[in-house]
Amino acid sequence: MEWVERVLNVRQYSRDGERAPHKPLLLLYALGRFRHEGPRAIEFSAAEEDLRRLLAEFGPPRTTSPGYPFHHLTNDDGLWEVRTADGGPSPGSAVGPLRSRGAAGRLHPGLAAALAGDSALLPRLVRALLEANFAPSLHADICQMVGLELEDAELPAAVQEKLGRRDPAFRLEVLEAYEFCCAFCGYEGWLNGAPVGLDAAHVRWRTYDGPDRLDNGICLCALHHRLFDRGVVGLTGDRVITVSRKYVGRTAASGNLVLELVGRPARDPQTGLARVEPTHIEWHAQQVFRGPARAA
Fold this sequence. Notes:
Blueprint: H1 3-8, H2 22-37, E1 42-43, H3 44-58, H4 67-72, E2 80-83, H5 95-100, E3 104-107, H6 109-117, H7 121-133, H8 139-146, H9 157-163, H10 170-177, E4 190-191, E5 194-195, E6 198-202, E7 217-221, H11 222-230, E8 233-235, E9 241-243, H12 252-257, H13 278-287
Antiparallel strand pairs: 1-3, 2-3, 4-5, 6-7, 8-9
């Protein structure tokens, strides 16, 4: 099996559609370490806080342990292996034994050899992992955190078909529906006759079966799109804007741009056009928004 297909076939925890990108985040972290250090083993005790931060920022809203992917990725053949200081196998996913027994993980030698022999493989793996698991607005932030470059990479046709292709008409349909205006803050901007700083945001991410349809789209400025995908801001079922209590903004700009959104109704699309489907809002509230929400 081709390496890109292997990383996309990694088994992930699944219950009621819950996001669980723990293993993809570990693989991205390991690829970043490989890029800078080669095939050296990664000690769990040295990587624990990095992985904890990655999971906190880009994983599901619930608290999760970095020991989970560090151990369980060994169950996916040919990608990752873990050995304790005395040469034994992984002691499990509990962080205590992983620390005390000096557990260290590394990319499987076969994968490491393939990466060393093909300079184009690493960016292909990175691109596939990002597209399969995360909203596009998060890709650059994830790469920066794990020490990777966000590069364009050609994916095999079968992989691209599996990931699906974006509908090029989706962006214009959403922006026109909201009259080229951010549904949260009212921003509109133009440069040489073209809208600038406005995005067509998916409420339910495409990577989790979110369709390229108006009832899954909302026009947001670049700032609020990124905050929406990071779970800082969200929506209630009746399209009232929420802001996470975990978000802290101390300046006047933070208050004006984020905190004052609490309790404000989101802008509607033009009369007669589809609002965001409540089931997509519910998915975002459960899988992305970093609750609880601030009181209005």
